[in-house]
Amino acid sequence: MIGRLAAVLAAALLLACLGAPAGPAAAAPSPAPHEETRFARVAAELAEDPLSVDMYLADAFSRADRRRIKAEMAATAKRIGVPVYVVVAPNPMESESYGEDEAFLFGLHERVGRNGLYVLVDEHGHIESVAFGVPRRIPYAPSKVYSPADLDAPMADVPARLRQLFDSVASAPSAPASTPTLNSTPPPFGQEHPPLEAEFWGPFLTGLLLVGPFGALLLFALIRAPVAGVRALRARSGTPSRGETKPSVRSLRVRAARALGELRDMLPDHEESPGHGYAARAYDAAQILFDDVAEDPADADEAVLDLVWAVVLARQGREVLDGAKDRPSAPCFVNPLHEPSAARRKIKGHGRRPVCADCAAAPPSSLAGRTLRVPGGRLHHGVPGRWSRFASAAHGRELPSVVLESLGVD
Q: What is the pLDDT of residue 352?
C-alpha cells in the first residue's frame, strides 16, 4: 500500500514538474582568497631555505639545533637523491588544510612543484612526513618518532625525533620512486559541516516555487521519508549523533550534574577504602569545573570542554570505585564522551592514542566524523589551553591531580 501511494505521488509530482524550466547549473565555489596565502608564503620560504620555521614557533629551537637539523637534512637529501623540506608551523583547524597535517604537505608539494621528503612539525610537537618521489621502500616509523615524549614540552625532543625519521628514510631499501595519494581531501571552506536538512530543504523550496503548495507537500512526503530512513540507518550503524560529536553547553550541564551526583553517592566514608583517594580528587576537580561554567558562558568552546572533562573525571572516579583499583582507563582520544579506552590505534597526525572499542574498530575514514568538536567547529584537542594537553591523558599522569594543579588547587 505504501509503495503504491509513493508511486502515485511520484507520478503526480512528475506531471506537475514536466513543464517547469530548468534552473541554472550551480557554479563551482571559488576558493577563499586566504586559502593560497600560507601555501604561497611557505613555498617561497622553502625556495630560499629548506627549513622553514614559522614566527610563532621561532623559539622552539636554538641556533645550534637549527644548524644540526639543516646539516642532517642535507646529508639525508644527498643519500636519497631528492630534497628534504621541513616546515615547523602551527596547523590549526582554521587553516586551509583543516588541521590535517598530511593534507597540508600534499598542498605544499603541489605549490613547490618538486619531489622530495616533506616534513611538518606542528605546534603540538607532532611530526608528519610524506615522501614524494623518494626512491626508497620507506618503513612504517614507530609512534615515538611522530609524537612527543613529554606533552608539557612537546618541542624538546623534536630534533632527536627528526634525526630518527631521516635515518629511517635514508637507510630504507632502494625502490622505484612513487607518488603517494591523499586518502581524504579536506572539504571546501564553509562546507565542512553541511546540515542534514539540506537533503530536504533545497528540493522542498524548489518544489514550492515550481508546483505550488500542494506539490510541495507531495515533495515533502517523498523526500522526508528517505531522510528519516537515512537517520534511522545511521542510528542502527552506530554513527555518532550531532549531540554526541558537537554537544551544547546546556546538554552537557545536565550530563555533568548527573555524573557528579552518581559519583557523590558512591564516595565511601572512610579514606582508607580502595579507590577513595583518586575518586575524591576526581570529584573535587569535576565539581570545580562544573561550578565555574556559567549558565550563559561568554566562551562556549571553553565551557563545553570544561563540562566534557567534568563528565570524564566523574566517570573515572566511579570506575575506580567500581573496580577497586588505583587508576582508571584513559578516556577515548577521539571523543572523551565515548566509553573509556580499550585499545590504542594510530590517529593521523597524533601517533598511537587510546581509543574506545568502537573507535578501535571503526574505519579510518570515519574517525573524523566521530571526533568531538566544540561549538565553534574545532576538534576538541585542537583548542588551545589545558585541554589540548589533557586530551590524551594516558601518559602516566593522574588526570584529577593535573587538573587540580591547573586550577590552582593544592
A: 80
